[in-house]
Amino acid sequence: MTEKFQPPVATSWICETCGVQFPESGSPPDRCPICQDFRQYVGLDGQRWTCLAEMRRTYKNEIAEIAPGVLSIHTQPKFGIGQRALVVKTSGLNVLWDCVTLIDDATVAAVREFGGISAIAISHPHYYSTMVDWSSAHGGVPVFIHEADREWVMRPADSIQFWSGETKEIGSELTLIRCGGHFEGGQVMRAEAGALFTGDVIQVCPDRRWVSFMRSYPNYIPLPESSVRAIVGAVEPFEFDRLYGAWPKHDIVTGAKEAVRRSADRYIRALREVIR
After folding, report:
1. Can you tell me the distance from the alpha carbon of 242 to that of 27, in angstroms, rounded to the nearest whole number?
2. pLDDT tens digits, residue range 22-53?
3. Which 3 state secondary structure label does DSSP give 76?
């Protein structure tokens, strides 16, 4: 019989439903504001908490280079929302795009072998997870978040850098683009090599020929036409042929920009039919 895990006296508690970490305390928080927001949910078993020490006993990260210069990190078995993190390599620096909650010695070693990271950028609050620990494990690198999502940072830290405006360059080859939609500060990242990294701000559909846009995925709340047009308009000035979504294998390997355009047209047509 496995001995029941006893968490440290003080720990940085993690919400089991969304995977977001909170400041260190002697007991779990009363609630998770991210899960109580209308875009997320509290699990069927109620609010539940864990910590990294407990997670490391049960979970591991699967790590693989899925394309030249793109390293995928995905936790098994599924934890929280189940998203992946991607390390994007450029000639000048590497960036961790989005984040998974589990971070352990094996994961840190694999990222360092890939060239390490110089910065972290996260699409939206559902994927903030243990971003502060990820930064600390790599020398306190900056975590770039749009200022419109400042209120959703549950564990503040000096490494978190809020940016404003519509675009922000990271080095010479990566650009953050504020799209809004899912969250006001929802952002995607474009690489000069012709790839767009979107989390689920622009969500790749299972057939990988289409994308979609939602206010809330678990609660099936769509975005209005104006928001969809704003998302497409934000990425339109940038060239990209590939698109990497939030989930493993949810990638459009060619023709991604046209897929975004025609998907938006299909989405808007469907909205107008519902309104009629």
Report:
1. 44
2. 999 999 999 999 999 999 999 899 999 999 99
3. strand
Identify the pLDDT of residue 9: 65
Rounded to whole angstroms, how far apart are CA atoms 70 and 87?
6
**Domains of the chain, each with CATH number or no CATH:** 11-55 (no CATH), 56-275 (3.60.15.10)
Rounded-to-integer distance, Cα 251 and Cα 62, Å? 17
In sequence order, the 6+-apart residues with CB closer than 8 A to the CB of 21 are 12, 13, 14, 101, 128, 129, 130, 131, 132, 133, 154, 155
- Angstrom distance (rounded) from CA 42 to CA 28: 15
Q: 79: helix, coil or strand? A: coil
Distance CA 89, CA 95 (A): 7
The band of 219, judged by pLDDT with boundaries at 50, 70 and 90, is very high
End-to-end CA distance of the chain: 60
CA–CA separation, 36 vs 39, rounded Å? 8
